[in-house]
Write a structure and sequence with these properties.
The protein is α+β, with helices and mostly antiparallel strands. The protein contains 8 helices and 13 strands. It is found in: Nucleus, Nucleolus.
């Protein structure tokens, strides 16, 4: 057996090998290496921009099952959102929601507020400084109700399309920017897939924003995954769901409140609509009562003549 080397000899040999073969590594600090790599890292961080948008989705208490299913459908469509417990819809809900958004490290909030078990309001806010928008949600159809044939992967990034009406007036431009920031999935998000296979469509009709979700279906030829140029023209859109319509009520300068930037002059509250319907039904009953009184007055003013043969058969 050979003799073992002493520790000093082995250290000298190893130091000699390091000097001949490899160069010394630069010293590392908390801010980076000392050979000037920190400046390069700073420059790269300034040039590149990473979207860290996160959306908090929550609802109020006593929400109906249809509206809760609509909220869950939106949660499944937005991989960059965070769902939270129900919040009591009181006057001080703005401060509570802003605190929740800060605790969840989010930058936006979608709050579904249900009133009287019938009316659904959607708050869309950029926290903590605003702006925020309050919508009345109409024509709600969830994925479970529609049972459409469209289907796309969960977590894939959507293509956002807007109608030309969004560029005509300033309040529509503001809503378009908010839709882009909230519904657009950030690139390289850890829960998202790096491709597009569905489309979010926002269109304006009768001063309402209509939302649709379509799958991009394209025919594949053969076993290859690549698509021919001729097949690109054959792409079709298959609706997936859900469907809903947003009626803007007010746009506020702050988060869940603040100065009013825009107010919809054509908005009619659902309570007023129901009261008008009740008045119309009450009007029908009032007409019947008036007709009965007119008939009685006519009978009193025009009495019938006495019939001579009325009591003939009674004897």
């Amino acid at each position: 057996m050979g003799k073992k080397r002493k520790h000093s000899e082995a250290a000298a040999v190893s130091n000699g090998d390091k000097d001949e073969t490899a160069t010394e590594r630069p010293k590392r600090t908390l801010l980076g290496f000392k050979d000037g790599s920190t400046e390069e890292n700073k420059e790269s961080s300034i040039v590149t921009f990473r979207n860290k948008e996160k959306v908090l989705v929550t609802c109020s208490r006593r929400i109906s099952y249809r509206y809760r299913h609509l909220m869950l459908n939106l949660v499944s469509l937005l991989p960059h959102c965070k769902k939270d417990n129900k919040v009591e819809s009181k006057d001080a809900k703005g401060a509570t929601l802003n605190e929740l958004v800060e605790l969840k490290s989010c930058s936006s909030c979608l709050f579904f507020e249900c009133r009287k078990g019938k009316d659904l309001y959607l708050w869309m806010s950029k926290c903590p400084n605003g702006p925020s928008v309050k919508f009345l949600v109409n024509a709600v159809h969830t994925m479970e109700e529609l049972k459409l044939t469209g289907n796309h992967l969960k977590g894939s990034r959507p293509i956002l399309t807007f109608s030309n009406n969004f560029d005509k007036q300033p309040h529509w431009k503001l809503l378009k920017e908010m839709f882009m920031q909230i519904f657009g999935t950030p690139k390289d998000h850890r829960k998202s897939k790096p491709f597009y296979d569905h489309v979010f469509v926002f269109s304006i009709l009768d001063d309402h924003v209509w939302f649709r979700n379509y799958q991009i279906s394209c025919p594949h030829t053969g076993t290859t995954q690549k698509i021919d140029r001729g097949d690109l023209e054959k792409m079709t859109l298959v609706e997936v769901g859900p469907r809903f319509c947003l009626n803007p009520i007010k746009i506020f300068g702050g988060s869940f409140g603040g100065p009013t930037l825009y107010e919809n002059p054509f908005y009619v509250a659902p309570n007023q609509i129901r009261s008008l319907e009740k008045k119309q039904k009450a009007g029908k009953y009032a007409k019947k009562v008036k007709a009965k009184t007119r008939r009685k007055m006519h009978q009193l003013s025009n009495p019938l003549e006495v019939d001579e043969f009325a009591d003939m058969w009674k004897e």
